[in-house]
Amino acid sequence: MSRRAVRTVFGLSALALTALAGLAGCENLAPPPGESVTAVRLNPTPELQSVTKRQDDIDNTVTFAMDEGWRAAASDMARTVLYVDRPSRLDPYPRIR
Questions:
Q1: Range with lowest mean pLDDT among 8-22, 36-50, 80-94
Q2: Other CB atoms closer than 10 Å to residue 39's CB: what's the count?
Q3: pTM value surpassing 0.90
Q4: How many of the other CB atoms lie within 10 Å of CB of 48?
Q5: Is the CB of residue 87 less than 8 Å from the CB of residue 97?
Q6: pLDDT tens digits, residue range 13-39?
Q7: Are the C-beta atoms of residues 54 and 48 closer than 8 Å to each other?
Q8: Measured between alpha carbons, how far is 54 from 68 in angstroms, rounded to an integer?
Q9: Predicted pLDDT at 19
Q10: CA distance linking residue 25 with residue 55, whole number of Å
């Protein structure tokens, strides 16, 4: 085959494959619920509960704050009521000042 014939065959086969791929990718399916154009326009970021945080982020922040608060309260209680933060007086050796 001549060079021109090879180019023609290659070009036509590439064109046919492109057209076939384009037709195969065009399906007219109904969008899943919540993904219609109207639903997206009404709520473009449905996973966000505030300006920048998802519900998981908010839950993590609340859990972290509650944990910090309880640990701080327990530490304050130990220092105030139980006097655990001072050294033990039951040492067998005298303390050097």
A1: 80-94
A2: 14
A3: no
A4: 13
A5: no
A6: 887 877 776 666 656 566 666 677 787
A7: yes
A8: 21
A9: 74
A10: 36
